[in-house]
Amino acid sequence: MSSSPFYKETFDKISPEKQDSIFTTAITVFAEHGFDAANINDIAKLAGVSIGSMYSYFESKEDLFLALVEKGLELLDRAMNECCPDEGTIAEVLERIFRVAIRYTEKHPDMCRLYLLITTDNMKAQTERLSDRAEMSFREMYKAVLRRAVEKGEVRRDIDLDAAALFIDNAVIMLQFSLTSRYYQLRMEHYLGAKSGDDYERLVRSNVDFICRGLGVDF
């Protein structure tokens, strides 16, 4: 049985190098052209595999795209483990979260562009097929961080943990979009000034400060 609902068992059987070649090529094509304009024949040719092989790995272009989004979410999920959410104050944990998000975005900018694509209304059908496993892990991590902060007396006890977790996640996602999407980059520059996307320290500090003040953290 395939380890993902979006590709077939045959894909699991090819070498990791060939899998990476297909994924890397497909990510670049989808990020550059979008879902509708991307052509699976072109992806196969650029990846050095036959179109017949591609369809033996993936049922459709949609499944290939969703496999990429799933992979990106899993990579981000693993990256977030570097945040050591059980260590330090909530301000320190939040700072690590934003720094990890920036490093991930720098390393995988096209993955972030794919995630931006999946959020658009015309991708609603594809979105509904995505598993919520990765999103759940982020949500639970944020809630665990907040719950721990409440227990330590860092955050006021009347805080809505679900809403606070959503707001933190929104801030992280918007930061990633602002560093990879030209539209969101320009939008950020309108608020923060030219080349604001290069000032990572300011972005980290301002996000942490804003969230902590909203949570009632005295730091």
Question: Can you put this structure into words, describing what you see?
Answer:
The protein is an all-alpha fold and 219 residues long. The chain has a single domain, classed as Tetracycline Repressor, domain 2 (Orthogonal Bundle), CATH 1.10.357.10. The chain has twelve helices and no strands. The protein is elongated and about 60 Å long. The N and C termini lie far apart (50 Å). The model has no long low-confidence stretch (mean pLDDT 91).
Q: Summary?
A:
This protein is an all-alpha fold.
Helical coverage, percent range: over 70%
Number of strands: 0
Helix-strand makeup class: mainly alpha
Largest sheet: none
The CATH top-level class label: Mainly Alpha
Q: Please state the average pLDDT score.
A: 91
What's the overall geometry?
elongated
Instruction: Give the end-to-end Cα distance, rounded to a whole number of Å.
Output: 50 Å
Supply the CATH architecture: Orthogonal Bundle
- CATH-defined fold name: Tetracycline Repressor, domain 2
What's the CATH superfamily, by name? Tetracycline Repressor, domain 2
Number of domains: 1
Low-confidence stretches: none
Taking all Cα atoms into account, the compactness measure Rg is: 19 Å
Strand content: under 5%
Following the backbone from N to C, one meets helices and strands in this order, namely: HHHHHHHHHHHH
Total number of helical segments? 12
